[in-house]
Amino acid sequence: MNLKTYKAGFAAYLILVFTIFGCKKDPYKGVESNEKSIENFSMGTGFTQIGAAVVDRAAGTVKVKVLVEDNTDFSKVKPVIQQSYRATVSPASGSEVNFLAGNYKYNYTVTAETGESREWEVIVEPFTETILGTYDITGLVLYGGTGPEYGGGAVLSLTSKPWIWPVSDGPQVELDNSITFKLTGVTPTGKTTGTFVNDAGADGKYANFIYTPDPKTDVNKFYRKIPKGEGKWERDYTNDILTLIAADGSSVNCSFLGPGTEDLGNKQTKTIVNNAFAFSLNGNDDWSAIYTDYDKFVKKPRRYWVEVKKRN
Which superkingdom is the protein from (predicted)? Predict the structure, then answer.
């Protein structure tokens, strides 16, 4: 094949390619979209959003939970909005809006390609992390005992029976300790996270939970729930679980409770005056030791509260 023939063949090939692809039709040409939804919504720079926005297409609402911090200003928000394909939104994505003027609500209009429009109400739900601050430990309380239906259960302060604990580092040394919680961020799933410091207080001591009567037993696994020193925390509001993570990576789950009275059954209750960290314990029934301190504190502890009071 000479060069002239090759060039002619190549030119014919290019013409064929352009003809094939040039004649391909746009399947959406001439079809106008009637979609007029907000598909996604975020608060934009400067805001910590708790989880993804909840879009209710039937109701025409979008709900956004936002963490309230020192610098949070809901009067100057530049949201990032994703609307339906080929639709427009007004005010436009990135435009500054004032959520305070409408009591944390703002209306957007989404207009479809066909020209039809729909009003959408965006509702901001301000969220405050309640655990932040410094708390003084005011009490350590146990609910324990085999056979509570037979009178074997009781709610007792750990410091109410000093003779069963070490003299120098029993539970009483915890009562000058303090716990400080700080916020570091929010996970993509909406859990708040931060750091904590469990300070040993003026005496510089943490309790060593040893049951001293015979049989002498180490019960730190039950009562050393709040780690010593520094650690991290994670809070899941969907199931009311606070996770405390020690420096060594070990963790424990609890609930952070406010004032109220907890019904424990069998005519037993626990009243919380300020706040408390509540832990579920998993002791074992011992019918041979029922009604004894050994049974309540060592064998069958059921629930444990670290009572605290927040500093002003």
Answer: Bacteria
